[in-house]
């Protein structure tokens, strides 16, 4: 007798937080749908359960408007009738900081556990590609299984939809791929026509892809769907047909436990999963709505690399850690990180909401840092008797020596900067302006009087050879009225240089030379402007259109100072005004790109800033950076806690249409912090701030960094690289004029070029240098608007602090995060080792003596005297002491 194959019918809803609709729309639907779901489950014991998209956010949103249903919902979650978690929101895993993914899971798991149960599945039904470290992140929260849809090719599966998914650090989870997506059973019925024409062919296809298992997973839901009341009766009727299948109402946890307990699946898959065979990855969504990506990167950096470690310093000195505020900020940020949201493939209303959300978080981060810096600085000034001081807060747990950017306010245009012991610090002014002091109102016996306030100077400067202790601060003095000051001077030269590089402008082109080895590249920077016939999901080339290359530049200015040299050049080209004019140009507009290069003393970076006032529609602009590597075969980039190598040419491109791929597997990749190319003779890498997309052009060795896309539609059929229906909503085109990016934009990145290869550790060190892990604060009363909260009175709860302080010093590893523990005052430091060799790390602290190892959930402590980091791995450390 033939064994029946068992079909696990899993009712669920994929709940997009926002998309072509707003988050308010989503939340209104949520309340109605959840009310109905709870009522149904309470009154129907035959209804096994319902997966609510693995998100804690839906619980928070529902209870905001239905607090009276807290107990009812909690009972359903405890009984595993409603499944939520482990995510807070379904985050895009390739467009956000690695630490943001950890926190998303932390808030998701902790929140759903308080509700009774966090689903033990790393559930990834719809995100556009999988980060290579996701298995490890799941394992760090005690999650042994993953269910995902996108990114895997058939030849990777080796005949089974079940496989072992492995991270670079060796951690694994047991995984299942949803070969037919998350909605094959959305319209499940027992009608003969549906069973014969749709259900049985789908199950036959699934059976053919499950060589070593008779268990078939049939996800039965869709986007924002209402629970299907008829499913218990439908399953009963399907079983009565006595066919080759046994149907059971189930859930993902039960399916994975049964399937993996009954079978062995030898196949292992690793690396980032961005295959385009069965589902769309939207590789070029990484450059859609650049403004969202840029502001998100700014906000992530402020929270992770500045605010949280600064708050840890403040807590160790006696201040309150702003946990409640950070909780609010993180949860708002998780909404931004939902895959559609951060992708920018939304209506203009939704994208505007996302930008406002990010702007609010940005202001909150600035305000919290303002308060902490001001309170600590006040206590330092009280102890040291110094009025005109400024504090360098170093928010990395390593001793620092290098350059520092800051803003100072002085009465005199000329001033000096020195340490408390009087050692002068070299600096160069980069910008200076005289500001009117305005007027103030003085109350007198005769009434209010306006009193003129003397003016003052606002000065931007770069200090060199500044030292600061690890995870602490140092105090510097501002001495007014110096004899001389180092200001930039415009020169007639056409070259700027520092210890590492020389950049020369000659006859409209740029040449970059690395001094130590003599490696040089001509035509260092050009730009490419091409038509974009795509939509908010995907760039699409326009057949017949030839990309326009901005080659010749004009030299605008060269400025030199002792610590900084700058060169500004301008590229201009007249280009078609929009898509309609690309093939038959009748209306044209200028595309002008002004680029400023900056070289600092004692720094191995070429800092680059592009300013564009875009007036052109339906196009893509890329910076073409000439590398010294000829015919590169691979590129590299950081992802998570190490570096990933990627082919410059994808062999699957040759026959992707004939093989029925859903999307062209173009070799365009995502940047987290940096990417580049190298061989035995030369290296070039780019370190970005918010720029998320690159391609390496093998024929000429150029590194193409996408600056932005300009496209005004959400949804378009039959793209050159994406045949068939429009993505998302295929029966409605949403016009998105804001996505044309008709505005002024600034793009920033840095270039590192070297003769020979560069060690992985060196790249991560440069990333930390470029993304400043410090903040500054001046004790002054001339200007109370630069730091917005300076104009208000606040309490000063601590007093008499020394001029220098260090909380903890880490050696031997890189630092991903420094924060307060989720459940108390202990300090959490996450270390990582991106190299191929095991390393020993150490933490030295006068106040934090008790060191233990913990997991990502900050549980399961194990006291230790040594910290060993395997290749490509990370480790979470809990520190206890006086701050606890």
Automatic annotation (TrEMBL):
SMART domains in the record: Alpha-mann_mid
Pfam families linked: Alpha-mann_mid (PF09261), Glyco_hydro38C2 (PF17677), Glyco_hydro_38C (PF07748), Glyco_hydro_38N (PF01074)
Transmembrane segments: none
Statement: the UniProt record of this protein carries the keyword rRNA-binding: no
GO molecular function, one term: hydrolase activity
Keywords on record: Glycosidase, Hydrolase, Metal-binding
Record organism: Thalassobacillus hwangdonensis
SUPFAM superfamilies on file: Families 57/38 glycoside transferase middle domain, Galactose mutarotase-like, Glycoside hydrolase/deacetylase
Lineage, highest ranks first: Bacteria, Bacillati, Bacillota, Bacilli, Bacillales
Matches recorded under PANTHER family: ALPHA-MANNOSIDASE 2C1, MANNOSYLGLYCERATE HYDROLASE
Segments forming domain Glycoside hydrolase family 38 central: 288-358
Domain of life of the source: Bacteria
Residue runs in coiled coils: none
Protein name, as recorded: Glycoside hydrolase family 38 C-terminal domain-containing protein
């Amino acid at each position: 007798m033939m064994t029946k194959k068992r079909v696990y019918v899993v009712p669920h809803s994929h709940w997009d937080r926002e998309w072509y609709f707003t988050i308010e729309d989503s939340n209104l639907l949520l309340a109605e749908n959840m009310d109905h779901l709870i009522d149904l489950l309470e009154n129907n014991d035959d209804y096994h359960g319902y997966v609510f998209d693995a998100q804690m956010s839906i619980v928070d949103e529902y209870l905001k408007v239905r607090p009276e249903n807290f107990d009812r919902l909690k009972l359903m979650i405890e009984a595993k009738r409603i499944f939520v978690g482990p995510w807070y929101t379904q985050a895009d895993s390739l467009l956000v900081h690695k630490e943001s993914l950890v926190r998303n899971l932390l808030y998701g798991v902790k929140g759903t556990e308080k509700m009774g149960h966090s689903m033990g599945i790393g559930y990834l039904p719809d995100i556009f590609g999988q980060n290579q470290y996701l298995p490890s992140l799941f394992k760090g929260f005690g999650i042994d299984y993953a269910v995902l849809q996108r990114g895997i090719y058939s030849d990777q599966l080796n005949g089974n939809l079940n496989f072992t998914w492995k991270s670079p650090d060796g951690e694994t989870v047991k995984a299942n791929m949803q070969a037919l997506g998350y909605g094959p059973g959305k319209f499940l019925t027992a009608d003969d026509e549906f069973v014969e024409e749709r259900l049985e062919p789908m199950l036959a296809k699934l059976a053919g892809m499950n060589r070593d298992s008779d268990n078939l997973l049939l996800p039965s839901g869709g986007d924002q769907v209402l629970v299907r009341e008829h499913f218990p009766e439908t399953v009963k009727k399907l079983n009565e047909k006595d066919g080759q299948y046994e149907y059971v109402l189930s859930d993902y946890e039960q399916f994975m436990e049964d399937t993996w307990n009954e079978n062995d699946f030898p196949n292992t898959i690793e690396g980032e999963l961005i295959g385009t065979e069965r589902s769309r990855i939207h590789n070029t969504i990484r450059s859609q709505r650049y403004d969202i990506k840029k502001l998100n990167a700014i906000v992530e950096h402020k929270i992770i690399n500045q605010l949280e470690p600064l708050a840890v310093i403040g807590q160790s000195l006696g201040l309150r850690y702003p946990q409640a505020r950070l909780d609010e900020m993180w949860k708002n940020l998780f909404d931004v990180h939902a895959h559609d949201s951060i992708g920018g493939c939304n209506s203009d209303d939704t994208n505007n909401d996302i930008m406002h959300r990010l702007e609010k978080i940005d202001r909150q981060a600035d305000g919290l840092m303002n308060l902490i810096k001001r309170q600590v600085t006040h206590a330092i000034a009280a102890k040291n008797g110094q009025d005109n001081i400024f504090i360098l807060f170093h928010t990395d747990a390593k001793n620092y020596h290098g350059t520092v950017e800051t803003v100072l306010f002085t009465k005199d245009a000329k001033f000096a900067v020195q340490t408390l012991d009087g050692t002068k610090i070299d600096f160069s002014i980069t910008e200076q302006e005289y500001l009117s002091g305005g007027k103030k109102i003085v109350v007198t016996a005769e009434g209010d009087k306006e009193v003129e306030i003397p003016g003052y100077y606002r000065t931007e400067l770069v200090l060199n050879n500044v030292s600061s202790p690890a995870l602490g601060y140092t105090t510097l003095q501002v001495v007014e009225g110096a004899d001389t000051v180092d200001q930039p001077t415009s020169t007639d030269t056409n070259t700027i240089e520092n210890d590492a590089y020389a950049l020369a402008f000659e006859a409209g082109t740029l040449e970059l030379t690395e001094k130590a080895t003599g490696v040089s590249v001509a035509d260092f920077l050009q730009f490419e402007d091409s038509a974009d016939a795509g939509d908010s999901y995907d760039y699409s080339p326009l057949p017949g259109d030839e990309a326009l290359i901005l080659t010749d530049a004009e030299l605008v200015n060269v400025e030199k100072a002792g610590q900084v040299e700058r060169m500004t050049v301008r590229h201009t080209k007249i280009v078609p005004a929009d898509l309609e004019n690309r093939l038959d140009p009748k209306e044209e507009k200028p595309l002008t790109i002004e680029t400023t290069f900056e070289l600092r003393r004692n720094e191995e970076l070429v800092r680059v800033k592009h300013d564009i006032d875009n007036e052109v529609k339906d196009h893509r602009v890329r910076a073409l950076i000439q590398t010294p590597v000829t015919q590169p075969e691979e590129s590299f980039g950081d992802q998570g806690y190490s570096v990933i190598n990627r082919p410059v040419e994808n062999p699957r491109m040759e026959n992707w249409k004939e093989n029925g791929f859903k999307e062209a597997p173009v070799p365009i990749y995502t940047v987290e912090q940096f990417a580049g190319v190298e061989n035995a003779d030369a290296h070039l890498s780019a370190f970005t701030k918010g720029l998320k997309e690159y391609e390496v052009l093998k024929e000429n060795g150029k590194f193409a960094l996408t600056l932005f896309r300009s496209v005004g539609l959400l949804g378009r059929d039959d793209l050159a690289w994406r045949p068939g229906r429009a993505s998302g909503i295929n029966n409605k085109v949403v016009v998105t004029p804001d996505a044309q990016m008709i505005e002024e934009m600034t793009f920033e990145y840095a270039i590192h070029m070297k003769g020979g290869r560069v060690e992985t550790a060196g790249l991560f060190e440069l990333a930390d240098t470029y993304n400043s892990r410090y903040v500054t604060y001046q004790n002054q009363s001339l200007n109370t608007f630069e730091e917005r909260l300076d104009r208000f009175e606040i309490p000063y709860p601590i007093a008499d602090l020394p001029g220098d302080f260090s909380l903890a010093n880490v050696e031997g590893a890189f630092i991903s995060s420094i924060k307060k523990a989720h459940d108390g005052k202990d300090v959490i430091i996450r270390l990582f080792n991106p190299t191929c060799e095991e390393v020993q790390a150490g933490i030295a602290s006068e106040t934090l003596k008790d060191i233990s190892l913990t997991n990502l959930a900050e549980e399961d402590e194990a006291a230790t005297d040594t910290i060993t980091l395997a290749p490509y791995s990370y480790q979470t450390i809990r520190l206890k002491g006086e701050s606890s």
